[in-house]
Amino acid sequence: METKKAIENRRSIRDFKTDAISKDIVEDILNCGRLAPSAKNRQPWYFVIVQEEMKNKIADMMIDYTINNDDTIERKKLGCASSVNPTANVIKQAPILILVFRPKDNNWIVGDSLSIGACVENMCLRATDLGLGSLWIRDIVYVSKQVEEMLEHKDLELNCALSLGVPNQNPKQRPRKELKDIIEWY
Ligand SMILES: Cc1cc2nc3c(=O)[nH]c(=O)nc-3n(C[C@H](O)[C@H](O)[C@H](O)COP(=O)(O)O)c2cc1C
């Protein structure tokens, strides 16, 4: 697929079919992430691919978080429900969850986060290119400590995650600001 078409066609997918995705396909997508540019070429990413029970366990940690967290309960009272629960349900539905870690290094928070952004977008675009759906996930950070402990990765911090699967929906393009409203030329 032409790059521009993949950029235009990519959507956040929140409804997946049960079809499995092969290891080769997942590694093809991870490889496109690996090829992303990064600040000082630090390549500050480490991927853990979770499926089935372990994936669902992480989703349950997120659901438990929303049940037990005062902030979420307050928000619900205000009619502004948190997205953590719906995101956890997407994680359960999609067959693959890629956890994206970065080294724990306070000097590189901004640079590493920007680099991981480039890496994850590459993976989303490759998934689109292959006819697969993806959801880039930040809501998982509420359980980052638990996930880090479960996987015994003491030197790594969970930055975000990516759900992958065969899409069971074809959403329209979500609203975007007009180019004229977000640029200035001199
Ligand atoms: C860094 C980042 C974090 C995101 N985290 C979540 C998330 O936790 N849950 C979710 O449902 N969507 C998440 N999204 C998806 C956004 O909501 C989505 O990209 C946005 O609404 C635009 O829709 P589109 O991706 O279909 O164009 C995230 C997107 C980005 C880039």
Describe this structure in words.
With 186 residues, the chain is α+β, with helices and mostly antiparallel strands. It has a single domain, classed as NADH Oxidase (3-Layer(aba) Sandwich). Helix content is 45%, strand content 15%. It has a four-stranded antiparallel β-sheet, with helices on both faces. The N and C termini lie far apart (35 Å). Bound molecules: flavin mononucleotide (FMN). The site of flavin mononucleotide has 12 residues, from strand 3.
Question: Which key features would you list for this structure?
Answer:
single chain; 186 residues; alpha+beta; NADH Oxidase; 4-stranded antiparallel sheet; 7 helices; 45% helix; binds flavin mononucleotide
Element layout with pairings:
Blueprint: H1 3-9, H2 23-34, E1 46-50, H3 52-68, H4 70-77, H5 84-93, E2 96-103, H6 109-129, E3 133-137, H7 144-151, E4 156-165
Antiparallel strand pairs: 1-2, 2-4, 3-4
Helix pairs in contact: 1-6, 2-6, 3-5
Question: What is shown here, in short?
Answer:
This protein is α+β, with helices and mostly antiparallel strands and 186 residues long. It has helices at 3-9, 23-34, 52-68, 70-77, 84-93, 109-129, 144-151; strands spanning 46-50, 96-103, 133-137, 156-165. It has a four-stranded antiparallel beta sheet with strand order 1-2-4-3, with helices on both faces.
